Amino acid sequence: MSDMAMLRIGILIAGVILLATIFFFGRPKKPSQGRRLEPGERDNTRVEPSLATDDEIERADYSGDEVSQPELGLGAAAVESDLGKRPNQDFDKIVSLYVAAKAGNTLRGEDIVVAAEKTGLTFGHMNVFHRLIDNKPELGPVFSMANILQPGSFDMANIRELETPAIAFFLTLPAPITALEAWEKLLPNVERMAELLDGVVLDDSRNTLGRQRIQHIREELRGYDRQHEAPPLTKAPRW
Asked: Positions of the region Disordered (predicted)?
């Protein structure tokens, strides 16, 4: 299978990871999630591959069995943070973009962190990166960025060993600002990340993001904002 085919399959799986990630945003931990099962206690004894080496990256199979639901921020070594946590988990739309490595390359963990810092992203809730509103982080993320490889989070303790074919950016609506304003913050951030990482920007269909698709998304989000405008106040009748 070609590198591009593998990348497309991986990004397809990332869509599932994104939905599961959003599902977990704002949800309290359940008591049963406080302990990880040891490999011998699972239904099967397969141990998930490490992302530490090029050989393992090349052998990774995104076609099914080794892709699991994300456990972002639930690991024993994870540092809990509320930065980027949504005030509630109610949302009705997700807009996603990807920054993918060019054919034959991968995105390195250290480079991702540096680029994220340069573009104003904050590491926080669920161990992923978020774009927050200045001085109002309690309003939740404008958008977030995750790894497309399971579990979707960024392990800062081992970030130097991380290599991934792509990272995913997702905007969940409603956001703390209007949908169109959020998009106008998301797009330049993604484009700058791609520039810093020498990657390419893909849309939610895993195609290169072009002007026509950008315009279509803008119009779609304008429509979303119109549908979610607060109804005008009814004026009291004059007697």
From this structure: 30-68
Q: What are the residues facing 95 on neighbouring strands? A: 171
pTM of the model: 0.67
Neighbours of 220 (CB within 10 A): 14
* Greatest alpha-carbon span in the chain: 81
Q: What residue type is assigned to position 117 of the chain?
A: E
What is the pLDDT averaged over residues 166-173? Answer: 97
CA distance 19 to 170: 10
Query: Six-digit token pair at 34?
Result: 């406080």
Helix (H, G, I), strand (E, B) or coil at 146: strand
Q: Which amino acid is at 81?
A: S
Q: Which tens digit of pLDDT belongs to each residue from 32-64?
A: 334 444 444 434 433 333 333 334 333 333 333
Residue 6 φ then ψ, to 5° = -60, -40
Instruction: Return the domain boundaries, the chain.
Output: 3-29+51-66+83-227
Which residues are CB-neighbours of 168 under 8 A, at least 6 positions away? 11, 14, 17, 18, 96, 97, 98, 145, 146, 147, 148
Angle between helices 179-197 and 211-227 (to 10 degrees): 150
pLDDT band of 89, cuts 50, 70, 90: confident
3-29+51-66+83-227: CATH number: 3.30.1400.10
